[in-house]
């Protein structure tokens, strides 16, 4: 793993879509939810075509070893949004890597990139 790579675990999947909507390479939008009644550090996950699809894991029971919890990520992303890309999908988890600013700029240059629509 490269030193600057930050991996996250996506949980609480949308009941309609479940995990079937996730594909390796899918772009995810990470949005802070400071008014969330259950977790002050909640980070919502959104995708093109599907809207809200889950949350970033924030419990020792749900955060996959080697990934960052929502609490660790919360202050590292801006208030507007951050983006991640799905890297692994297992029977129980979706693991994504938070994208760096340069990667986001490159994706925004592509008019068909999902990043431009979420």
From TrEMBL:
Domain HIRAN residue range list: 17-68
Entry superkingdom: Archaea
Pfam family, one: HIRAN
Alphabetized GO MF terms: hydrolase activity, acting on acid anhydrides, in phosphorus-containing anhydrides; nucleic acid binding; zinc ion binding
InterPro entries registered for this protein in UniProt: HIRAN
Presence of the UniProt keyword Acyltransferase in the record: no
Claim: Metal-binding is one of the keywords in the record: yes
Annotated keywords: Hydrolase, Metal-binding
Name by which UniProt lists this protein: HIRAN domain-containing protein
Organism: Methanobrevibacter ruminantium (strain ATCC 35063 / DSM 1093 / JCM 13430 / OCM 146 / M1)
């Amino acid at each position: 793993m490269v030193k600057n790579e930050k991996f996250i675990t996506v949980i609480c999947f949308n009941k309609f879509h479940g995990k079937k909507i996730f594909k390796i390479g899918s772009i995810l939008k990470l949005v802070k939810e400071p008014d969330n009644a259950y977790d002050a550090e909640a980070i919502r996950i959104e995708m093109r075509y599907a809207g809200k699809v889950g949350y970033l894991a924030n419990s020792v029971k749900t955060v996959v070893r080697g990934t960052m919890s929502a609490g660790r990520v919360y202050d590292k992303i801006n208030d507007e949004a951050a983006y991640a890309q799905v890297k692994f999908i297992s029977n129980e988890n979706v693991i994504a890597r938070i994208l760096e600013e340069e990667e986001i700029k490159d994706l925004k240059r592509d008019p068909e990139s999902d990043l431009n629509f979420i």
